[in-house]
Amino acid sequence: MADSALHDIPSVYEPSLFGTYSKKIGMWLFLLSDSLTFGALLYAYSYGRISTANWPTPFHSESIVNATIMTAFLLTSSLTMVLAVRASVGHNAKAQTLWLLATMACGAGFIILHGREWSNLIAEGLTLPMFPKVPGHEAASEFVNVSQTVPQFASTFFTLTGMHMLHVTLGVIYLGVVALRRKFIPILLMLWLVAWLATPAYSPFHYGAHVLLIAAIVCGIILWLKPKVYDSSDVEVAGLYWHFVDLVWMFIFPLVYLMSAKIL
Amino acid sequence: MEPDQIAIAERVAEQHRHHKKALFFWVWGALLVMTAIEVYLTYQNMEPVKMLTILMGLSLIKAALIIGFFMHLKYEVSRMKWLTMCSVIACLILMTIFFFPDARRIIELGVK
B58 with B37: CB under 8 angstroms? Predict the structure, then answer.
């Protein structure tokens, strides 16, 4: 009744003040607020670095090479994402899905490399009090020293990179839902089981894997309440989020890794 | 701006946003090259402040390329560009004003 009454009224809505659709403006506003979250974390890291005279530079060339490959993965994923948006505008559904899957693959590659790096650092002794000890592994003395003498290094490092890793993970899930809709939920549940069962109990990823379970439940509820075929505007909005996580990494990579590289 | 002018600007922006596939490959290549330069500079034993300045300069250029071309902000109407960028930059400037002098105070005067 109310709907039909509304439809009889000739267009009374003014064009958007910002020259685009509301979904996109909403995403931009979210990204602006999120940029302040990351801004605060990056400033906290920089504050700690400036105010600590003996700030450690523990990253060997292996870590730098690993982080560089991770950066290349993210940059490539941004390219594939923009091609997915282009395909969606051209109503090429097959290409859109393929480019979205390619973006997800690059994102997954980033997460796997990052997870491997975290596991190595924790095993070598760069850890937080909340992380369980790695059994049967001798910690490297330089990382134990870093954790004891400058504890804010490990805490700011894990908070900043962990927050970013969480954003990338949620981004991959977001793209999965846009690309595959309901079909993605069982895949997500399977990934959760694999991540949970394949990681040892002392690893932070053993508990972190539950993010996938929570995401599967939330996505399941959303898709059940409002099933829809995502159009080009949805793909573009998802792309904005994805490019944002890439953008944030462009500051984390030099500030956290390159400025803390061990020069022999 | 009149509503019809806004609608025209919106349509033109929408047309500009989704063409020039080669441009995206150029931007991607430029981002990769700048990343390689950053890694190269890391091992040049530069003074930390000088290195930080160069790295942050390159990061700002990379961020501008991502926002402008990949996030299509370059093709949005100017009202959108100014509002989004000015608000976030103002907040970051405020953080800089409050955080960094205090961080230096700690290292120069000690914690009181």
Answer: yes
Delimit the domains of chain A by residue range.
26-260
**What CATH code would you report for A26-260?**
1.20.120.80
Looking at chain B, the number of H-run helices and the number of E-run strands are 4, 0
Q: Are A240 and A175 in contact (CB under 8 A)?
A: no
pLDDT of residue B23: 92
- Tell whether the model's pLDDT for residue B5 goes beyond 90: no
Q: Is residue A10's pLDDT more than 60?
A: no
- pTM for this one? 0.88
> Phi and psi at residue A12, in whole multiples of 5°?
-110, -5
What is the ipTM metric for this complex? Answer: 0.88
- The reply to whether residue B76 touches residue A20, judged by beta carbons under 8 angstroms, is yes
Whether residues A20 and B18 touch (CB distance < 8 A) is answered with no
Place of tokens 């120069």: B108
Instruction: Work out whether the CA dihedral A141, A147, A153, A157 comes out positive or negative.
Output: positive
Give me the pLDDT at residue B95, please: 87
What pLDDT, on a 0 to 100 scale, did the predictor assign at position A96? Answer: 95
Q: What is the DSSP letter of B70?
A: I
Structure tokens at B82: 């100014």
Which residues on B lie below 8 Å from A110 (Cβ)?
none
A90 chain-B contacts, CB cut-off 8 A: 18
Backbone phi and psi for residue A59, each to the nearest 5 degrees, phi listed first: -85, 115
CB A72 to CB B71 under 8 A? no
